[in-house]
Amino acid sequence: MRSASRPTTTDVVVPIISGLYGLLFGSFLNVVIHRVPLGQSVTKPRSRCPQCESELAWHDNVPVLSWLVLRGSCRTCAEPISARYPLVELITAVGFVAVSLSVGANWVLPSYLMFVAVLVALSGIDIDTRTIPNKLLYPAGFAGAALLVGGSLLDGSAEDLIWAAAGAALGFAVLFAIWFVAPGGMGYGDVRLSAYLGMYLGYQSLGHVAVGIFIGFLLGALSGIALMVVGGRGRKSKLPFGPFLALGAMTSLLAGQVIIDAYLGI
């Protein structure tokens, strides 16, 4: 029996570096989630306390750690700071590590790390505002496509770009058809988002696109039923659907092939 190959230094270092970058990007994503819906710049001014608007010193802006040291409150006004800030940083870091383990040390990895960051930002904005802003989604789509093309060429996998384009078309077509038949069920921003998700999942395979969409709808349906049963919300109460599509896409990216093989009995 052949022994399993031992992990190389790259196999260990890349996820660690990705996780550290995830913490840093997560801190920036908190700014994006807060400012983009308000039409504000994400670069100026510097990060501020959401209560007293005091600028945060660098040592008060260290991802996760500063929030823990300050016990979740502002150093200046002592008002509580939402736990969502470190949560976004942790989710981004975990997502970066998971994707780096799944994609590996390939040239397409930066594009997939960007994919995770965009999903976190859009999900946060959708939860807050029930919208998926085009001014974030469109630039992310063009930049992600450019990175994916460059990475695939360097990886020698240019043929997979055809499937990425097909995945984008498939994702858009499926959700557009559902939106067209039942326009009240979701916003058109979710339809646009599905093309972005489909591009990355299609790069893996069209089966990944199907798995991602199915899981997204399944999670959304189960959450809606749970809220009706537990929270007493009516059937017409709307949930932000973007986060469920994002969760479905991440699940498919990380475990899609296992799900596809199990379904096909392989």
Q: What is the molecular shape?
A: globular
The quaternary structure here is single chain
The portion of residues forming beta strands comes to: under 5%
Order of helices and strands: HHHHHHHHH
How many distinct helices? Answer: 9
Helical content class: 55-70%
Distance between the ends: 22 Å
Class based on secondary structure composition and strand pairing:
mainly alpha
Cα radius of gyration in angstroms: 20 Å
- Count up the domains: 2
Which residues sit in consecutive blocks of at least 5 with pLDDT less than 50?
none
Can you give a write-up of this model?
This protein is mostly helical and 266 residues long. The protein has two domains: 105 residues, no CATH class; 161 residues, no CATH class. 69% of the residues lie in helices and 0% in strands. It is built from nine helices and no strands. Helix 1 runs parallel beside helix 4, helix 3 runs antiparallel to helix 4 and helix 6 packs parallel to helix 8. The longest helix has 27 residues.
Short recap of the structure:
By secondary structure, this protein is mainly alpha-helical. It has helices at residues 9-35, 65-69, 84-103, 109-129, 134-155, 160-181, 188-204, 206-231, 242-264. The two termini are 22 Å apart.
